Recover the amino acids of this structure.
């Protein structure tokens, strides 16, 4: 939890509270962005430095944590000064810093002073490391004056090679396969589409048309299907997984591609999420509607 006095955190299993993480030179925290590493051993916070008297800048504060106690801390100064963002590499050895107000992205190492920097033609909107820690996917903000330019990049940070690819359209969501070979983008324009690219060649491998707007996208561990806002979407040519998978078309709930439950028209625009065999609709009319198909429900009424 970020508060004016610092970053407060707890062990969610025991309820034990850790040290309050504070910046070295300031008593209060302003607007910033922070992340906790998956193993709970690093906390990173980036924010505008309010003590700057001349040129504005930001600081990246890094704390090493062991057993909920602060072991060490360090600070790095950089020139991004408006709503900085951070992304951790999966192996937690590197991190990226960027801002949509800046055209610069920096990749820094936790273990040494190595710094890699790229300047693009537009502000950086999203940065995502591939699972093998070797590549970085970059999405830049769309600029109407440069509509002929692509707004998607793959940066090989080991070879320092930047490749531009894909059409210029609004990207709703992005994810990479666990082996780091594939990148999936969910686009929204006249119709929603999932496009799958090779990370190494940037070639378009698959284009999957959707009949709904999709704002979330996640590869399955096997890489054979995606989890979306409306359930499971299979990769072309892949067989359905052993356990039944649900998906919501415009008017039906489907199981492994077969229509099993018709949705009355009032529910069709109210679907929020599908997890396993549980379907959640937003307040209708006065409280959320939850349908669990594993309990044998095969009909809905309006």
């Amino acid at each position: 939890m970020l508060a004016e006095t610092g970053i407060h955190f707890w062990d969610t299993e025991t309820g034990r509270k850790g040290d309050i993480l504070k910046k070295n030179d300031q008593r209060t925290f302003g607007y910033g962005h922070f992340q906790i590493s998956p193993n709970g051993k690093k906390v990173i916070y980036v924010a505008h430095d309010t003590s700057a008297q001349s040129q504005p800048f930001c600081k990246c504060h890094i704390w090493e944590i062991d057993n909920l106690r602060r072991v060490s801390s360090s600070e790095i100064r950089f020139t991004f000064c408006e709503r900085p963002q951070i992304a951790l590499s999966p192996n937690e050895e590197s991190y990226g810093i960027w801002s949509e107000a800046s055209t610069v992205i920096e990749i820094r190492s936790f273990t040494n002073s190595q710094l890699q920097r790229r300047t693009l033609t537009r502000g950086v909107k999203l940065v995502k490391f591939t699972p093998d820690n070797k590549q970085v996917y970059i999405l830049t903000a769309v600029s109407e004056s440069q509509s002929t330019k692509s707004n998607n990049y793959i940066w090989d940070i080991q070879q320092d090679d930047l490749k531009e690819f894909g059409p210029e359209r609004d990207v709703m969501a992005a994810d990479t396969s666990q082996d780091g070979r594939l990148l999936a983008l969910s686009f929204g324009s006249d119709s929603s589409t999932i496009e799958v690219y090779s990370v190494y060649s940037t070639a378009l491998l698959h284009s999957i048309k959707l009949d709904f707007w999709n704002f979330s996208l996640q590869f399955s561990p096997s890489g054979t299907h995606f989890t979306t806002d409306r359930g499971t979407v299979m990769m072309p040519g892949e067989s359905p997984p052993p356990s039944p998978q649900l998906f919501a078309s415009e008017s039906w709930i489907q199981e492994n591609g077969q229509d099993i439950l018709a949705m009355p028209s009032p529910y069709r625009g109210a679907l929020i999420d599908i997890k396993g065999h549980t379907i959640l609709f937003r307040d209708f009319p006065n409280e959320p509607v939850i349908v669990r198909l594993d309990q044998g429900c095969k009909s809905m009424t309006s």
Notes: DSSP finds one helix and 27 strands in the chain. The CA atoms of residues 52 and 65 lie 28 Å apart. The longest helix spans residues 265-268.
